[in-house]
From TrEMBL:
It comes from Actinoplanes cyaneus. GO terms for molecular function: oxidoreductase activity. Transmembrane segments: none annotated. It comes from the Bacteria. It holds the Pfam family HEAT_2. InterPro entries: ARM-like, ARM-type_fold. This is PBS lyase.
Length: 705
């Protein structure tokens, strides 16, 4: 166990820096770098990088390395606090390169980690309470580093005040940011910021000065800040940048509801020029640059979906195409967060499929395709875009309708899959969250007769980018079951092709069932030398196709379930074999214990039920997964698997009803963490939970929210 360092000791960087300041001007060689340097870095790494900042030929790389070294992924290293006085002095030298970036780093070292989202409740928070309770690997309180860095800024306040008149606007903006984070700065700081604001001409610097003054006032609990910022933002005589920054500051300074008049202001002043201005203001995180000012602003308002939706609607009607596009990103984000606002936001996106500007239509299409079944209420409006002249908009529209199983997607989807060139940008270059077409076939099972030949031809030719869709097409075929019988020959050939996910192909053949009998000899040949994971799929597929050898299949799967490196897959397949697996009950029960991974316990529980019909020992295991706190374990793949199994078990799974009901009644989505398509994921989860509740309690009508 790591022991917490004593305050005021030799590991307390606050006291060390105070002693260095008392000794006079900072000197690199006087700093005890080695004492605070992690063992994986050379002791002279930070001072070496600081020296290199003076060299124009190495300054850019040295600064990038310094960011990584002292502010890695938003967390400040102790050596970062020690570097602050030197960063400030280098930035004060007019001949030094990248002076604004140096000031920004010096300021950031004193800040909490603020990746993710900016909100009115957090933008002015420099240190989190959690930092006061967290220690690093050497027992040092994390908050000590931030405090030491902020004290260093305060100690050099006079130097920074002098830079408020620097000819470089980026320097002036970052000076304001640094001074705003100073710990208990002298009154001269506020006076200097006000004096500069009175004469400042740069839009970004004016906004930064307003934010800095407001943050300092909030920090010292000055109640006048609310009236001061209100006077600035309501006055139409003030420049838009000042009004906008003052409105943000007012929101940070009070918990009062967002006034309707402020929403009018945002709709009026948010334009490309304001976006460019705010891009040069140090306060917002990278979300503003990646998602756009409009999307950032909607999140900034906090968890008030009715107000956020109002602002989204106003911004989506902006005369500026770039603002409308950003508003659509915000619309999807709002739908991804709140179930009750999904239909309204999806309708807004569908309406913008008919925008006059192609870039806006593309943004709408890229987000609608991620909504999956949630786009159903807007299906007619979406289908009206099938004649869009933009090839990307058309392609996304086809896929969106295919996700709905809409008959209007049949012929366009056949056309799309027949085209030589892959119609979408590469995911890594995609500007809207890297959407992909996903499983375009699952909901199109009723039209398999028309689409199967096209899908087979597409799988046979995966050139020109189409290889990226191969896995999704295979997954879709597995959902078609026997309706994919026309693909058996191709699937059999794919088993021998290079760069093929054989397990996915085998699953497809298994789901097709008896019509895939021609593939059995190939399955047998592959089984002779298959690794355990593939072998499990092969023996199970053979049984699914032929109906023969259930006991032998169960024995092989049970043996594989006891081996290393196979995970829960053999247990999942063993459950499908049913009562023929009863002889292997001891193997299955051994994997019910808490020592096993959650997924293994889940699959073992269902396999035991499938083999023996036992519910007394299986339902509690499954229900326990749903009872885990969702704050830390979002509703993910393990949960959806459990829900499907509970639906199969039926009325004996009544113990899970409270957890299932709570999931359906929540307004905030509990989607899979990191999911690219949270709306679609959550809607499918709702449908699964609804089906499970109907199976368990058929007398209680329920439906997705």
């Amino acid at each position: 166990m790591i022991e917490i360092c004593e305050p005021g000791g030799e590991q307390d960087v606050r006291w060390v820096m105070a002693a260095l300041r008392a000794a006079g001007e900072p000197e690199l060689d006087a700093v005890p770098w080695a004492r605070f340097t992690d063992e994986c870095w050379p002791p002279d790494s930070v001072p070496g990088l600081l020296r290199a900042l003076y060299d124009p030929g190495h300054a850019c790389r040295s600064l990038a390395d310094l960011w990584t070294r002292v502010r890695n992924e938003g967390t400040s290293d102790v050596t970062g606090a020690l570097a602050v006085p030197f960063l400030l002095r280098i930035a004060a030298d007019p001949a030094a390169p990248q002076r604004a970036e140096l000031l920004n780093l010096a300021a950031e070292v004193g800040h909490r980690e603020h990746f993710g989202t900016d909100t009115r409740a957090s933008l002015f928070h420099v240190v989190d309470e959690q930092d006061r309770m967290t220690i690093d690997g050497y027992g040092r309180i994390v908050a000590w580093t931030c405090q030491a860095a902020r004290e260093a800024v305060t100690a050099d306040a006079v130097l920074l005040i002098g830079l408020l008149d620097d000819p470089d606007p980026a320097v002036r903006a970052n000076v304001a940011y640094a001074l705003a984070g100073a710990l208990m700065p002298p009154p001269e700081v506020t006076a200097a910021l006000r004096e500069r604001l009175a004469v400042e001409t740069s839009l970004a610097v004016r906004a930064s000065l307003v934010l800095a003054l407001a943050q300092l006032a909030v920090e010292r609990a000055d109640s006048d800040v609310v009236a001061w910022t209100a006077a600035l933002w309501v006055d139409p005589g003030n420049p838009p940048d000042v009004r906008f920054a003052a409105a943000l500051s007012w929101l940070c300074a009070t918990a009062e509801p967002v006034p309707d008049r402020m929403l009018d202001l945002f709709a009026e002043v948010v334009d490309p020029r304001m976006a460019e201005t705010m891009d040069d203001v140090p306060w917002p995180n990278d979300s503003l640059r990646h998602r756009g000012l409009a999307a950032w602003l909607v999140v900034f308002l906090g968890d008030v979906p009715e107000v956020q939706a109002d602002l989204v609607a106003r911004l989506a009607a902006s005369p500026h195409p770039s603002v409308r596009a950003c508003a659509l990103r915000a619309a999807y984000d709002l739908a991804a967060e709140w179930r009750s606002w999904t239909d309204e936001m999806i309708t807004l996106l569908a309406d913008r499929l008919h925008d006059t500007e192609p870039a806006v239509r593309r943004t709408a299409a890229r987000h609608l395709v991620r909504a999956g079944a949630a786009a159903a209420p807007a299906a007619d409006r979406i289908a009206a875009a099938l004649d869009d002249p933009d090839p990307e908009v058309w392609a996304w529209t086809v896929v969106t309708l295919a996700h709905l199983g809409d008959v209007r997607a049949v012929e366009p989807l056949a056309d799309l899959l027949s085209r030589p060139a892959y119609p979408w940008p590469e995911p890594r270059r995609h500007p809207d969250g890297s959407p992909d077409p996903g499983n375009v076939l699952s909901a199109m099972r009723p039209y398999a007769g028309r689409l199967a030949p096209v899908v087979v031809a597409r799988l046979a030719d995966s050139s020109n980018g189409w290889r990226r869709l191969r896995c999704e097409l295979l997954q879709g075929l597995s959902h078609w079951g026997e309706h994919a019988a026309g693909a058996v020959d191709l699937l059999t050939d794919l088993l021998s092709a290079p760069d093929t996910d054989r397990t996915k192909v085998v699953y497809c053949l298994a789901r097709i069932g008896p019509p895939a009998a021609a593939a059995v000899p190939v399955l047998d040949r592959l089984a002779a030398g298959a690794e355990p994971g593939l072998l499990a799929a092969l023996v199970w597929a053979r049984w699914r196709i032929t109906g023969e050898g259930a006991e032998d299949t169960a024995a092989t799967l049970a043996r594989l379930a006891t081996g290393a490196g196979t995970g829960s897959q053999p247990l999942r397949l063993l459950a499908d074999v049913g009562p023929a697996a009863a002889a292997h009950e001891p193997v299955i029960r051994a994997r019910l214990s808490a020592d096993n991974h959650t997924t293994t316990r889940v699959e073992a529980a269902f396999a035991l039920w499938g083999a023996t019909g036992n519910t007394a020992d299986t339902v509690p295991v499954l229900a326990a997964v749903l009872d885990e706190p969702w704050d830390w374990h979002p509703f993910g793949s393990a949960h959806t698997t459990v829900v499907g199994y509970l639906a199969r078990i039926g009325t004996a799974a009544a113990a899970a009803v409270p957890a299932l009901t709570a999931f359906l009644e929540a307004d905030r989505r509990l989607g899979l963490w990191g999911s690219k398509d949270p709306v679609d994921w959550d809607r499918r989860c709702q449908q699964s939970v609804t089906a499970a509740l109907r199976a368990i309690r058929p007398d209680v009508p329920r439906g997705p929210r």
